[in-house]
Each structure stands twice: as structure tokens, then as C-alpha cells.
Amino acid sequence: MAIVSKAVRYLTYLAVVVVLSICSGAYSSTSLWAKEPNSHEDLDETPYREMVRFHWKLEGFSGGLLRIFPLAPSEGTGILESRLLTGNRLDYRFRASFVGSPDEDFWIFRSIVDLEKTRSLYVHDLRRLRGKKKIQEADLTNDHCLDIISGIHWLKVTQPNGNHRARAWADSKMYWIEIVANGFGPREVDGRTLPVEHYTIRGIKEPGEPFWKPTADIWIRADSERLPIEVLYQKGVAKVRLTEISAERPEN
């Protein structure tokens, strides 16, 4: 019985780690304990510019583990929305929730983007699970970098070709990343075949620099709206896929 109990505790721990690892990185003990996102300036109820709803699901070993041992949810919903701010800035917010708890977000990521220079100005990363909460935030005004959300915005507006190097913020650290343009083509998403552009983001090993271990594949609609329709994020045994459910833009 002691062996069984120990195994259950280990699987519970592993399940929690797998779920948290989809949140742009590890559940770091060095996270900054800070205020809620609504404490920051400019967070208001201005009309959203665009809104994309996703279904996310753990796949591969991690997803199979949580389906066998349902110790933590393995799927849920996510919403990515943007609002135009003063000073030529865009406020992106991504909120993710579990199936069965649609009104409680376990991950809220906010990125304020400089529209002229297409880079991050401020990030706020809130993660909570099982009654615990950790927050990381950073003023990136002088860092000339991207983050997980502003990186998608950069892909939308620049439509890059070939390979590009960039600095990126994640888990309170700065990393060198490579953005690879994989080309244009049709892709089937949720029963629909759409023309898309495919990009891969991966870390670059540099002496004396931290290495970003995950990889992310992003598919963006090749049309006038250029919205992300699918994201595949992988880190170790954690593998999560986000698929667009719906997208909308209010009438101006």
C-alpha cells in the first residue's frame, strides 16, 4: 500500500507539472509575487479589436497520462483578445481555463505591444492552480524583445521569410530564439481547410546565455485578417495544441 500511495503522489505531482508546463514555461519558484493584472495602468473596458477563441488539449505522453490518471484537466478553452491603447500601443490578453471550470482562468498572460516598433513593452504572467498563485511581470520598454503573444503579433504584421533571430522574454529571463518561416499552404483545422502560413519558434544556444527549451509551431491565416488558427507548443513530455473555435471583430 505504501508503494501505491507513493506512486499516486508522484503521478499527481507529474500531472500538475504537465498542466503548468503549457503556460509558456515552468512553474518557477523564482516568480515575482505581484498584483493582479487589473492593477496596471490602461487596463480598462475599451472595446476589443479582435477576439479568437481556442480549444486547447494536451497530446502525446502527457495527454495520455492524464486520460489514464485524471488527476488534472487535460483540455479546456482559451481566449486571445486585443484592445487599442493610447500612445500607439496594443493590449493583448490571453486567458485559459479548464473544462468544467470555464469561469475560472488558470492562466492569464498580458502583453502590451509597441505598434510602431512591433516589440513588447510590458508583460504580466499570472498562473494559478489548486489554490496557489504566482505572477511574473516585467517592464520591457528598453529591452527590444518579443514575448509569446507579441511574437504572434510580429508574425501577423511582418509576414517574414527565411529565418530570423530575436530576443524573447519568458519566465523572467531573456532568451535568443530563431523564428523559421516554413511556407504557405492549405491546412485542415477543425474540419475546415484554410490557406495558412506556418512558422516554428525554437531556442538558440549561445555561450553564457539561457537556452529556451520548448518549441512552438504557429499557423496563421493567409488572408486579410491574419489571425492565428492553430498553435502547437512542446516542452519535454508536455505537448499542447490550441485550435481556433471562432474569431470575431466588432464593427467599427
Task: List its traits.
disordered N terminus; alpha+beta; 12-stranded antiparallel beta sheet; 252 residues
Q: In brief, what are we looking at here?
A:
The chain is an alpha+beta fold.
Topology of this structure?
Blueprint: H1 2-21, E1 50-58, H2 60-68, E2 75-85, E3 89-98, E4 101-114, E5 119-129, E6 132-139, H3 148-158, E7 163-170, E8 173-189, E9 192-203, E10 215-221, E11 228-235, E12 238-248
Notes on the protein architecture:
The chain is an alpha+beta fold and 252 residues long. The chain is 16% helix and 50% strand. The chain contains three helices and twelve strands. The protein has helices at residues 2-21, 60-68, 148-158, and strands at 50-58, 75-85, 89-98, 101-114, 119-129, 132-139, 163-170, 173-189, 192-203, 215-221, 228-235, 238-248. Strands 6-5-4-3-2-1-12-11-10-9-8-7 form a twelve-stranded antiparallel sheet. Mean pLDDT is 79; it is low at 1-44.
What is the oligomer described by this structure?
single chain
What percent of the residues sit in helical stretches (DSSP H or I)? 10-25%
Order of helices and strands: HEHEEEEEHEEEEEE
Question: CA-to-CA gap between the ends?
Answer: 64 Å
| Strand order across the largest sheet | 6-5-4-3-2-1-12-11-10-9-8-7
